Amino acid sequence: MSTALQWFKSSYSSNEGGECIEVATQPSAVHIRDSKNTGPNLTVAPRTWAAFVGLARQEGRSIYASSV
Asked: What is the pTM of this model?
């Protein structure tokens, strides 16, 4: 059984650089790293990641709504 993580880059990322993250999921953990520096990573519980993504989506909608 392989224990290597499978990293996924954000669908909003481009190949032009910038601030991109990659995420690898496991049943008990979500790993997050900088796509330019694949060394150290941050590991959080899936529940914590889900809460963060939910807040980021809400914030993204409010930023979009205020700019229209």
From this structure: 0.72
Count of CB atoms situated within 10 Å of the CB of 33: 19
The pLDDT of residue 46 is above 90 = yes
Do 51 and 35 meet the contact criterion of CB atoms below 8 Å apart?
A: no
CA 21 to chain centre: 5
Rounded distance, CA 21 to CA 64, Å? 21
Inter-CA distances, 66 with 56, 60, 62, Å: 15, 10, 6
Element (H, E) at 48: helix 46-67
Which residues, 6+ apart, have CB-to-CB distance to 58 below 8 Å? Answer: none
Q: How far is CA 4 from CA 14, 17, 24, 25, 63, in A?
A: 24, 25, 10, 11, 37
